[in-house]
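Collaborator request, handled under Task 6.
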Amino acid sequence: MKKKDPCVDEMNPKDLLGVKKSPVHLVPPALVIETAPAMANGADKYGPYNWREKEVKLSVYIAAAQRHLMAYWDGEDVAEDSGVNHLAHVAACIAIVLDAAAIGKLVDDRPPAGGAPALLARQDKTAPRGDRTGNTPLRVSSPNIIWKIIPHQHDGEWCEDFSCPTNLGANRQEAC
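Structure tokens returned to the collaborator:
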């Protein structure tokens, strides 16, 4: 159930309509302020709003965003060629993709769907190990035993301990 907003006057029709609109006030101004120099850099290189004139190939912008993320993650805050924060360049790439999609100019050239969502779900340490839908236990092979972790909790925390009695019981059946 959604909480009632104490700031909404239920007698004021503007409030009643306004709360149903996009909550743009939740976007931090720092995002717009920091992204502006990256957008200006792109406008200098390619022309302002160039992505609205021609189609935008998704892979080009995803690759550019990934390169900026990797550079940032690897310790470089600012792109050498532009003097702009790498994260601002990432935001600019994503902004262009979203804008191009909104106006029908995005060419979605993603490869066929792969297994990334399932792989990420299996590695999620906040969820039970294994397939969330089928609740399949995680199997870890060692030379003579296939160890299983049975999804279960102790005091609200997911157990990943092979020596836990629940897991030991399951693993006795698997031993060679």
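The cover message to the collaborator said: "The chain has two domains: 22-107, 116-174. The longest helix spans residues 29-46. Please let us know whether this matches your experimental observations."
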